[in-house]
Design brief:
The complex is a heterodimer. Chain A is α/β, with parallel strands linked by helices. Chain A is about 30% helix and about 20% strand. Chain B has eleven helices and twelve strands. The chains are: A alpha/beta, B alpha/beta. The interface between A and B is large, with 68 and 68 residues.
């Protein structure tokens, strides 16, 4: 269990860009991708703001050269685009050259088509092709097919908003244990009426730009996105003389066991996840240079996460910020989106501003980093928390 | 590397499997397209008020895991890993139809919350107050096997000592109705005992929850040892037999070492051919058994096969009702399981007697 887990490629599509370069550019220029929802017809259009990707499904179909009888959900489109960029950036030309698997994450899956054709399925057989595309594993199977991954380990994780962080965690385990030489890990979720209305009933959607860690935060903005990382073993890195972007150094998952949708006041689950990740990395809290927080801008999350961070780091909380103000909360994809942002932070030695912050929270005195900050970074901690008490932390490092 | 043991089982299925003292001695022969589970008395395990609020999948999952914990003599576990193809699908259906029927108005959060795929795993953690690792895999017919693989890796590496794993799926009316339209559900009612002679497309849909405590410590309660599990997203029919033989070889075994082959055939004439690849040639001299006539088909039905294998290895007997041939009736040391659904997401699992 002492082997390294190298990140050798990454791909992303989000509301702030259609690839890694566009996302980085928006991050350092403080350009957020939050607007009124355009592609989904909802009564809540004026009550919410979202992080929506500009391409239509038809445009994705063309980009991917799919015939019109395809049954791709938007989740599958987003996932395929990001996973292909990841493979390309890792310089992979022969996917079969090494034992390669795919671990994806989603919470919405094919729900966008299910909610569109729910009753039509019963009458209109031209819509029925989407029935098989509903289940969460379907988009993963399609991404695997698009990457040419056959006869291999392909699976899907769905633990709500920590899903993609957990996909990275499983991927790291599979590399360390030698089950796979190479694994593509990440997640994809599209916007849907289902999640818009679901979060609306929970009354945690902001009617304006989300403001992580602000005293007057009003809730989250939903977003759609996909991101994937290529993880490779030391042996592959050596044999192929690969450029390593960063390493997956530590990871931890714990359960808050407090409430199905709310986090505990003291952030027990979050605390345990961060502690576990530090232990796996063999780090002390002092070794962390930057925390990319979960920071959804809901009253509950930011308080619970902030308290958990203080419990782990005490008086010496490192620079931290949430990038949810840029992308919205991309649910199951969030852990992968923020993994890409964490790696970019390490590569460029920058900390992204926590946008829209105005007022210090009164419950504690830690304040997010609000301006772009250049500083040598060796390690970044990324948090992702979800319903069902699911709490995950990944630590990325420059050095193995 | 540590060994991985199955220390307990808890099963809720279309058969009366919730009683660990029985072993398929009272089998129900259904005649239907869709079969539901035989419910245990849920109130014996959860307070009635709580049980009423719970979705069927949560109720089955929570109770099957309590049975498994009891069977292992444990109060808690270190981690919980769940497999589910569709999660609490009734609540998904309920929330979607409410959105459409009421034009996005008058919605309440309960069905949205319960529709989240990791609700069952989260609820088990809440019930047990288990703050450990908690994952949910949602990859069609490989959902349960993904959970098994994850637990096996962690136990081998001694990261945890006792891990609760399980497969759970519930039936939903709309889901069944639309899957009938695309011929995934059998067009005619089929008698369970004649499932493999149905000569029609589709499967008999069902539901269930099968949970197990896996451990890297052997206990008095131990059923069997998990030797290996391997997942394949795709596998051409022509590769199935060779892949099975390779899988055995990776575990230093030959075909002759396999005492029982457990197959996931479900009577779908379009896809049972994958199982014939093993049945008719490579393993023709091996004792073969099947189980989906008893538990029906669902994304985590293979967890019932895993339950069956565990029971056989512990009790050293095969119930007549699952036999496909009659070649061996004692001294069962090694069982190979093979499952797939509609030609995708294949798995091979190897269990050994302890």
């Amino acid at each position: 269990m002492s082997k390294g887990v190298a990140i050798t490629g990454m791909g992303i599509i989000s509301a702030i860009g259609n690839n890694v370069a566009e996302n980085y550019d928006a991050l350092i220029k403080a350009n957020k991708g939050i607007s009124r929802v355009k592609k989904i017809k909802t009564n809540h259009v004026n009550d919410i703001m979202v992080g929506e990707i500009s391409f239509t499904n038809g445009e994705f179909e063309q980009q991917l050269h799919l015939s019109s009888d395809n049954n791709y959900s938007r989740t599958a489109f987003l996932g395929t685009v990001a996973a292909k960029e990841a493979i390309e950036s890792a310089g992979i030309t022969d996917i079969d050259a090494y034992k390669t698997g795919l671990i994806s994450a989603t919470s919405v899956g094919g729900m966008d088509m299910t909610e569109r054709y729910f009753y039509d399925y019963l009458e209109d057989n031209t819509t029925q092709k989407y029935i098989e595309g509903h289940h969460a594993g379907d988009s993963t199977q399609k991404i695997a097919e698009q990457l040419g991954i056959e006869k291999s380990l392909v699976t899907t994780i769905s633990t709500a908003c920590s899903s993609a962080a957990n996909a990275i965690m499983l991927g790291a385990r599979l590399i360390k244990s030698g089950q796979l030489d190479r694994v593509i890990v990440g997640g994809a979720d599209c916007l849907s009426k289902f999640t818009i209305n679901g979060f609306k009933t929970l009354m945690i959607l902001s009617d304006t730009y989300n403001t992580p860690f602000d005293e007057n935060r009003k809730g989250l903005n939903l977003g759609e996105a996909a991101a994937f990382l290529v993880l490779e073993s030391d042996a592959v890195v050596q044999a192929e003389n690969k450029t390593v972007l960063a390493y997956v150094k530590g990871y931890g998952n714990a359960n808050d066991a407090y409430h199905q949708t709310a986090s505990s006041d003291n952030g027990d689950g979050a605390f345990l996840a961060m502690e576990k990740a530090l232990k796996i990395a063999d780090y002390t809290p002092d070794d962390i240079d930057y925390i990319n927080a979960h920071g959804t801008a809901t009253g509950n999350n930011d308080l619970s996460e902030g308290r958990a961070i203080i419990r782990v780091f005490g008086e010496n909380v490192p620079d931290f910020s949430s990038t949810k103000a840029y992308t919205g909360h991309t649910l199951a994809a969030a852990g992968a989106i923020e993994a890409v942002y964490s790696v970019l932070a390490l590569q460029n030695n920058v900390i992204y501003p926590n946008l829209n912050f105005k007022t210090q929270m009164k419950e504690f005195d830690i304040t997010p980093q609000c301006q772009l900050k250049e500083k040598p970074l060796n390690t970044v901690m990324s948090n992702s928390f979800g319903f069902g008490g699911n709490c995950s932390t990944i630590i990325f490092s420059k050095e193995q | 590397m540590k060994q991985v043991f199955i220390n307990s089982v808890g099963s809720i299925s279309a058969q009366k499997t919730f009683d660990n003292n029985a072993f398929l001695n009272d089998v129900v022969d259904y005649e239907d397209h869709v079969i539901s589970v035989i419910d245990p008395n849920y109130k014996d395990y959860i307070p009635p008020a709580a049980a009423r609020r719970m979705a069927k999948g949560i109720k089955m999952g929570v109770v099957a895991s309590k049975i498994a914990l009891q069977d292992a003599g444990l109060e808690n576990v270190d981690a919980i890993i769940t497999g589910t193809g569709m999660g609490c699908v009734r609540d998904s259906e309920k929330f979607v139809s409410a959105i459409i029927d009421n034009d996005e108005q008058y919605l309440t959060p309960t069905s949205f919350i319960q529709s989240t795929h990791n609700t069952v795993g989260g609820q088990i953690a809440l019930e047990l107050q288990c703050k450990g690792y908690n994952f949910t895999y949602v990859h069609a017919s490989n959902s349960f096997e993904s959970a098994l693989l994850d637990a096996k890796l962690q136990l081998e590496n001694d990261e945890e000592r006792n891990i609760l794993i399980g497969g759970v799926d519930e039936l939903g009316d709309h889901t069944v109705a639309i899957h009938k339209l695309i011929n995934h559900v059998k067009p005619e009612a089929v008698k369970s005992s004649n499932l493999l002679e149905s000569n029609s497309v589709g499967a008999v849909f069902s539901e269930g929850a099968n949970f197990f405590v896996l451990s890297n410590e052997k206990e008095a309660s131990t059923y069997a040892k998990v030797a290996a599990v391997k997942l394949f997203n795709t596998l051409p029919k022509s590769d199935v037999a060779l892949t099975a033989v390779e899988f055995l070889a990776e575990n230093n075994l030959e075909v002759a070492d396999v005492d029982i082959l457990i197959l996931g055939c479900n009577g779908d004439i379009e896809f049972d051919g994958y199982y014939s690849e093993l049945q008719s040639e490579t393993f023709k001299n091996t004792q073969q058994i099947y189980y989906k006539h008893l538990c029906g088909e669902f994304n985590t039905a293979s967890s019932f096969g895993f339950w069956l294998a565990s029971k056989i290895l512990k009790l050293q007997s095969i119930p007549e009702v699952v036999k496909l041939n009659n070649l061996k009736n004692s001294s069962f040391k090694t069982i190979l399981l093979y499952n797939q659904y509609r030609g995708e997401n294949h798995s091979f699992t190897l269990l050994k007697q302890c």
